[in-house]
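Page 37, continued from 36.
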């Protein structure tokens, strides 16, 4: 069965709109786990625009499944990860002005830098996954680094403008998965997956885990709105 990792970054995004304490990401993580999430994903960005160090500490203490910490190759972030010791670290590229993680980590270009990060993280027994584009050269470089798992960036597939383009991008994901499996890698996938496009990716033979955030949080807002209004109405009557 394909596992589901739920990314709770945007619970913190909502909190940061008011710089307050609600909604609390740990409580969201608890609810995700209760609903069957297999792991909780959080991205400690260099700009701390949503998840903060304190969130990561609390998540580490409270998560009962697995904490998958997404992070860049920045030295101070690697140091934080080594202290927090998530069950898994997913190395991602990061650019200040981006709205979200745009594109996979260029493993070919950053080979030495990733190698140095891997040494530090492995010393703390942290399993490491690399978030990469579904390209043979990136998969080969990841395998050469000795990582056991990769996450394929599904953004191009998710952003497809028509079914022909989607079909082409799906084929690329299928081929990349088959190639990675042949190389002995565990394959995960994520980014931009939603309630309309997830099924085709979930069916790809060899994909073990999907990491999904934005679509789930969006659905939660709308799915919970009716109840939230009813509860408020009761209180003011
Ligand atoms: N996987 C990785 C590595 C990501 O960086 C993200 C976005 O933070 C996701 C999965 C989830 O993407 P989305 O929020 O679009 O579902």
């Amino acid at each position: 069965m394909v596992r589901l990792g739920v990314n709770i970054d945007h619970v913190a995004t909502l909190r940061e709109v008011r710089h307050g304490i609600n909604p609390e990401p740990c409580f969201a993580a608890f609810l995700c786990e209760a609903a069957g999430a297999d792991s909780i994903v959080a991205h400690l960005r260099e700009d701390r625009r949503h998840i903060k160090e304190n969130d990561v500490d609390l998540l580490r203490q409270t998560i009962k499944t697995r904490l998958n910490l997404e992070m860049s190759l920045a030295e101070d972030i690697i140091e934080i990860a080594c202290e927090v010791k998530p069950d898994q670290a997913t190395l991602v590229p990061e650019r200040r002005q981006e709205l979200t993680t745009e594109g996979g980590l260029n493993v070919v270009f950053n080979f030495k830098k990733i190698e140095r990060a891997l040494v530090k993280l492995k010393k703390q027994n942290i399993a490491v996954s690399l978030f990469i584009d579904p390209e043979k050269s990136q998969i080969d470089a990841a395998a050469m680094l000795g990582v056991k798992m990769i996450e394929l960036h599904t953004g191009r597939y998710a952003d497809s403008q028509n079914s022909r383009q989607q079909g082409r991008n799906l084929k690329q994901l299928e081929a990349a998965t088959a190639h990675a499996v042949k190389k002995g890698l565990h394959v995960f996938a994520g980014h931009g997956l939603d309630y309309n496009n997830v099924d085709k990716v979930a069916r790809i033979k060899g994909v073990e885990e999907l990491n999904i955030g934005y679509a789930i949080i969006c659905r939660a807002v709308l799915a919970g709105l009716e109840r939230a209004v009813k509860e408020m109405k009761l209180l003011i009557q």
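The CA atoms of residues 62 and 109 lie 37 Å apart. Flag for discussion at group meeting. The domain at 3-236 is CATH 3.20.20.70 (TIM Barrel).
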